[in-house]
Amino acid sequence: MAEKYYISTAIAYTSGKPHIGNTYEIVLADAIARWKRLKGYDVYFQTGTDEHGIKIEEKAAAAGVEPQAFVDDVAGEIKRIWDLMDTSYDRFVRTTDKKHKEVVQHIFKKMYDKGDIYKDTYKGLYCTPCESFWTESQLVDGKCPDCGRDVHEESEEAYFFKLSNYQEKLEKYIEDHPDFIQPVSRKNEMLNNFIKPGLQDLCVSRTTLKWGIPVDFDSKHVVYVWLDALTNYITNIGYDVDNESDEFKKLWPADLHLIGKDIIRFHTIYWPCFLWSLDLELPKKVFGHPWLLTSSDKMSKSKGNVIYADDLVDKFGVDAVRFYLLHEIPFANDGNITYDLLIEKINSELANVLGNLVQRTISMGNKYFDGKVTNKNVVDAQLDDKFINSIKELDEKVSAKMEALQVADAMTEIFNVLRLSNKYIDETTPWVLAKDDAQLDRLETVIYNLLESIRVCGSMLEAFMPSTSSEILKQINNDKKDYTYLVDNSYELGQPSALFQRIDKEKLNLE
User: 0.90 cut: is pTM over it?
Assistant: First the structure.
């Protein structure tokens, strides 16, 4: 039976249309999910929307609609963009779903009965956009440390979760499980900046908020955002406090929570303690991915520098945008996106390296051998051995990078082989071999080697650029899912067509 792999994104907040930085996360998760499927895993990939809170109440009121209508509209837009980006999620969840709300109420009551939740009065500094309370010492220049906006003092009756009960256990767990938080810089930040200085009990209900899940045994209170939002990872796979479904038993614990670095604190401090309170295992890994900046600046509507995925797709196509997001954002550092950078990469990597290789090779196979190419095994060891070995070693290299979640580096390995393929054409000079009838078997061997490279690279690209992968395999008319060089394959080629056109920036309307 195939090994399961449960991957989730954070659920997107329904305050407005997601920009390309938000979209990066779902595309990154999709590449990991698709790769795991290629490697034979039974993958479950969950995403969705976080739909409660004060910010939603305020935005709905400003729009003159009920909160439910507001979140229905935004959730629909988020799902549209996730689908536009060709993401292969198995379930799109919403925190306004009836079942989720019921289970959250059961979870709250179980924690209360256990003594992990208690009632008190809260007085603190509150940031409405982040829906977070802060102490004076946590502020940066008197403002919210997460978003830099103003905070205001609030006091109200609230229920609290006893994070302090789990202080030592959490500290020990993170130190004993060095791979739990990735990359390591995030792990060190959580331990040294948040956990070791001492955990404060967490406010988990509000009385001033109406748009949320009611505490069913105390109707004045609404369950506060993080207890509602984080539990989506279990409520949607069949967890309930007195009933763990077969699906839950199969899928939990999650193998990977993929989230933005700005919410790693909630996923590596609050979430583990909530799970322990429910006597559940922790997810195996939490990866806090970097941000996508524009012109090296964080995207925000107030700065007027927001780029949307659907606008990019209209201009450049889905797979070109996917390529840029997956190949150009580093493992642990913030990445940058501008129209100029995107166009440069499409022209240099996609049109030149990939598209040119596929078109040239198929054209030569059709021209010299009427599209029927087999391995005549006429070898020039000096030229062939290194090239063929690069194809044979590719699966191991890409797999190692993907296992370490270094998706950009995994794609680089594939494009290194594509570059070597172009170099191999220059070194073997097929157009010269074609002039000598005695060299036809050598020529066919060269084209066969190139087709094997294209087949292996094209097959692997399914995780990153699915429609491009499908088009490559269609043009070479061979979709054998074997990620190594095969000595005895055969080809009956289709017609070549350009995978990517070079873009002339001057002719493109970038307004």
Answer: yes
